[in-house]
Specification:
By secondary structure, this protein is mainly α. 55% of the residues lie in helices and 5% in strands. Strands 2-1-3 form a 3-stranded parallel β-sheet, sandwiched between helices.
Length: 292
């Protein structure tokens, strides 16, 4: 939906709004005062407080007259500050571009928790995302991925941010299953050494969540030049949940677990034997418990 030229249309149900705060600011920029600018800065910097506080409190934090927040809301086309606050809450919960930051995403999740409690809210969010995963990723997707890994000389895993934690686990599990695997994120100081020996029997397993890091493009370019297999060969694309939901590691971890388990099903016992050998080694190696 786009806003009608008549400002009264702003009173429509917040769930139907698709316009962003930034659009409103642009539309009415010629009418905004210095006090308005200070208020907007306060609102955007702390989105959760912005979505929960009343106009008087927001004005106090911005160091302006107590009625300034009400005047700002009316300049932007709202009847008053409560309606403007409802708009901010809807924008936050819907993942609006005004609040594209980790703090805002956390605030949106807090707002969506409601009376059910944090744990129940997170569980419901993960269940919904897992149902979407079941509907969008098939066994054939997993099998194509695991078949690529089965014949690999090496598997080089890489991800940034939260994905780096999953990369470490993937590399560890592949190593215990008998596959030569490298977590590139833990060897950033040795990237030239790791990539200089890439060949057509190597596989790059790359993970990206919200955004694709620039360095992944570099990896793809080097790997393509050397014939290694990269995401253009096999991609698994799935949502971790809509804005305002938990968007945790559950979905990518589920995909990774499915790939590694499917690999064990098709590699003629290699994974099972390697895991058994690894267990025997841990028991009989004589290494101290701290080393294991």
């Amino acid at each position: 939906m786009t806003f009608d030229e008549d400002r009264k249309s702003l009173a429509s149900d917040a769930s139907e709004r698709s316009i962003a705060l930034s659009d409103l600011i642009s539309k009415y920029s010629g009418q905004l005062t210095d006090a308005d600018t200070r208020l907007l800065d306060v609102l955007v910097r702390d989105p959760l407080r912005a979505a929960m506080e009343n106009g008087k409190d927001v004005s106090s934090r911005a160091g302006v007259h107590p009625a300034s927040a009400v005047r700002l809301a009316r300049r932007l086309g709202f009847k008053g500050y409560p309606e403007f606050r409802s708009f901010l809450q809807a924008s936050l919960a819907d993942g609006g571009i005004d609040f594209e930051s980790s703090a805002a995403r956390m605030a949106a999740r807090v707002l969506k928790t409601g009376d059910s409690g944090t744990l129940s809210s997170v569980i419901d969010s993960e269940i919904a995302a897992l149902k979407t995963l079941r509907d969008t990723v098939s066994g054939a997707h997993i099998r194509r991925f695991s078949e690529t890994l089965r014949g690999a000389r090496r598997v080089l895993v890489f991800g940034r941010g939260h994905a780096s934690a999953l990369c470490s686990l993937i590399a560890l599990r592949l190593a215990r299953s008998g596959y030569d695997s490298i977590d590139l994120g833990s060897r950033m100081h040795q990237l030239p050494e790791a990539l200089s020996t890439l060949c057509e029997t190597d596989v790059l397993w790359l993970l990206a969540f919200r955004n694709v890091p620039v360095i992944i493009g570099d990896f793809n370019r080097v790997a393509t030049a050397r014939g290694a297999k990269t995401p253009p060969h096999h991609q698994i694309l799935v949502s971790r949940g809509p804005p305002g939901e938990s968007q945790s590691l559950v979905i990518p971890m589920t995909v990774a677990n499915a790939v590694i388990l499917d690999l064990a099903a098709i590699d003629d016992g290699k994974s099972i034997r390697s895991l058994a050998n690894f267990r025997d080694f841990r028991i009989n190696s004589g290494l101290s418990a701290s080393a294991l």
